[in-house]
Amino acid sequence: MYTEADESAKKGPKSRLQNRILFHLSHKFNDENRLMGHHQKLQDILEDQLTLASIHYLRNHYQEAIDIYKRILLENREYIALNVYVALCYYKLDYFDVSQEVLINYLNQYPDSISALNLKSCNNYRLYNGKAAESELKSLLEEVATNHYASDLIKHNLVVFRSGEGALQVLPALVDVIPEARLNLVIYYLKQDNVQEAYNLIKDIEPSCPQEYILKGVVNAKIGQESNSREHLKVAQQYFQLVGGSASECDTIPGRQCMAACFFLLRQFEDVLIYLNSIKSYYYNDDTFNYDFAQAKAAIGAYKEAEEIFMLIQSDKVKSDYCYISWLARCYIMNQKPREAWEMYLKMDTSGDSFSLLQLIANDCYKMGHFYYAAKAFDLLERLDSSPEYWEGKRGACVGVFQQIIAGREPKETLREIIVLLRNTSNPQVEFLTKTFKKWGKDNRVTI
């Protein structure tokens, strides 16, 4: 009811209180000119400065809010509750350890404070893990039973601390109550690969903070990749660039991740690696980070390093993704390990992805001179699809193997397999090739 509040405030006498109320309402209406007009009327008195600090917080200017709160605390040490506000600002700046230290000043005097304990649990979640965070909240569950907002907030946070457990039972009802509930529900849908639901929830949100820009970027990137929509990919790239290029975020870890994502979508992988290298020490065991890092390494031809990073990934979900399989297979081939790539294919079920991998193995092995595995791959491709190019690839690969046998780089016994592969094709050239191979085998005492 901001419009009604605005009309009522304007009817009252002109005063510092009226200016403070209209200052807040200007922010709610997103009226920048009006906001600055009321800002200029603020004085260096406690109430006005607290109002200014709260607007800085709401506009994501956390350092400016901290500066005001600290100055007031220096002059009024009895205003101990301001420590909670300072701690909240540090939390928003990702200084979780500093936030925790400041919060202790308040908790030492008010150990049962719901707001402070909730913030402490959030810091523990970001510093340690969900279990450490949850332990702080368990004692509050009974106390907040009659406080609906506090109860909703704690239920919401427990879903986050438990990695989304109970999300569909708790979060939908809180979407219009707790701002973060919508964002966390979007994250839950993304983790469940329900990208369309995530998109439906976030598409109409006008982002106002880095987290919202980032999440909109991620959702648009997912939609764009799944539907091959250049428009969604462009929107994602722009959101990532806005965050990563902003003065407040450019040197933060999320800011650098955003720039890496932006360049990834632009396929500028050298630039991707500049940003990922600057934060890799924070993500050594993070599968998602390593997946992106390995792909970028492979894309610039650093296949040895890419293979090592791919092998760090533990997630079965990632390892079953065709993108992971195909990149790792390519790394094996480029790193002189074609047999490992071939074994990856043998482990796959017959599908469109297995056919694509077979094509990759055939072509990459041929390019790298691994003609034996190229011949086996082209032979299978030819049986699945009688396209002339597969016969041409197999013929070239078989001749390549023959040359390597003559040069002593392949065992002579391989000649038998190559002749069998050739005979799988009904082509007039087969007779000439097998006759040539047999003659050499006979001259060199190879049993065929």
Task: Walk me through the structure.
The longest helix has 19 residues, at 388-406. This protein has 448 residues and is mainly α. The model has no long low-confidence stretch (mean pLDDT 93). It has helices at 2-11, 16-28, 32-40, 46-58, 62-75, 82-92, 96-107, 114-127, 130-138, 148-161, 167-170, 179-191, 195-202, 210-227, 230-244, 253-265, 269-279, 287-299, 303-310, 316-319, 322-334, 338-346, 352-368, 371-384, 388-406, 414-423, 428-443.
Helix count from the secondary structure assignment? 27
Write down the overall geometry. Answer: elongated
The termini sit apart by 90 Å
Poorly predicted segments = none
Extended strand count: 0
Mean pLDDT: 93
Share of residues in helices? over 70%
Beta content: under 5%
Q: What value does the Rg take, in angstroms? A: 31 Å
Question: How do the helices and strands follow one another from N- to C-terminus?
Answer: HHHHHHHHHHHHHHHHHHHHHHHHHHH
- Biggest pleated-sheet summary: none
